[in-house]
Every structure is written in structure tokens, then in C-alpha cells.
Amino acid sequence: MKNIGDKLRTLRRDKQLLRALTCKFLFHTGIGRFLTFKVQGMRLRFFHSEMTYEAWKCPGRYRTEDAAFLEKVLRPGGLVVDVGANVGMISIQAAKLIGPSGRVIAIEPNPRIAAFCKENIELNRLDNVTVMQTALGEQVGTIGFNCDRCDDRSRVVNEGGTRVPLTTLDKIMEAHPKTVIDLLKIDVEGYELTVLGGAREALRRTRWLYIEADAPNYAQYGKSVKDVTALLDTQGFDIFISYEQGNWQEVNGALPESVNLIGRNRNN
Questions:
Q1: Secondary structure class of 45 (helix, strand, coil)
Q2: What's the domain count of the chain?
Q3: Residue 39 in domain
Q4: How many CB atoms are located within 10 Å of the residue 8 CB?
């Protein structure tokens, strides 16, 4: 039995290696962008991006906790704001859950990745998603963005980078002045606290918050995870740690260095 187990593990590793090598070939030849694949009930184009690569490599396991969480908190007709939408996985999943009477606002500052997001939305024939190519912060203008080829390391920079539009979430939500935000998801590689600083009004009418909390990323902007949890507490949110199958547990003691946080508005 041990030999059979060893052979199965070797076969699994070899299969993953083959997929990794195939992925590199598709990326470097440019053929990939003409191909599509299915993952968790959605279709994605094989774009040159880290999220695309990971979703294709492990389609049955990649970020399944995100999908499970969305299924638990979203309802038909809701409004979802996806800040740091990347290639659109969460936006697509949310759009299908809230249905044609709902609306997703997908916000992605990287021009290349925002274009990928738009194509994936079109590929899934969704009419209830608006993609906005802009960064979010505490003011309106432009800001530097490094547009790293490894897109999960792309972030706002103080010097250099590509200039991209900058606005606040409160400014965007002026177009929806009385609408409750069923879910606000934020994943912006450490810039989360600044995004929240420009979303004070929006937070008051947000039911659920889903936010990446990564201590090393936060430290690049002189912030900490504790700064974020403190702000959310003052804004009326109970804070939980996200874990497998979309479940969550209340924060009790020190937080892990890297974790997804869930906020539940005490007033909505």
C-alpha cells in the first residue's frame, strides 16, 4: 500500500509539473490569450497573470473559500463592490449570485489587468458588472502604480510607476446614494487602510466586508493589521477571521500575519 501511495503522489506531482510547464509555454508564446478554461462554474481566458495561472493549475482548489463565503452572504438583487478585482474571479462569482437585478462594481487600477477583467466579464456574458480602471484612496487625482508583471505584487507606489486615475470609494458611491452595499471586498496589496480612509460614508451602508490583511504588505505603507481592525471597529464592524468552506470565527487574540478578514456591520 505504501508503494501505491508513493506512486500516486509522484503522479500528482508530475501532473502539476506538466501543467506548470504547459502554462509557461502558453504564456511565453502568447497563445494562451486565445484559449479559455472553466473553473468553479465560470470561464476565464488564459491571460498572462498570476491569478489565471493559479486558477488553471488547481481549478478545484483555488480560492474555494472565497466562493463559499460569497454564497453565504450574497442575495439576489444586491450590490457588490470588488476593489482590486484583478482578472474578475470574485466579480464573476458575485454577479452570478446576485443575478440580473443586482450590480457588481469591479475596480482594478492596473490597465492591463483591468482589460483582462473586462474580457472575462464579457466571456461569461454578464451584463450586471461595471469595470472601472482606477485606484482608490483618500483623494481624487492620479497616483503611481508599479504594474508588476507578477500582478499579485502590483501596488500603489510613491515614486515612479505608471500614472493611473485615483478616486475615493465615497466619490464612486455618489452614483448610488441610497443603495446598501451588500459586500465590499478589498484586496490591494497593503493599501487597504488608505482605501478605507476614503470610504467612511460607504462603510456606513456596507453589510459585509471582505478584506485581505497581510502584515508585510501593510508595513510597506507604514500601517499594521491592528490599524485596520481598529478603524473597522470604530466604523461599527464586528471582525472575524475567514477560514475554509467560507466559515468564519471571531477575532480572539493575536491575528495571523496573513489572513482574510470578514467584517459584519452591527447596524445593517
A1: strand
A2: 1
A3: no
A4: 10
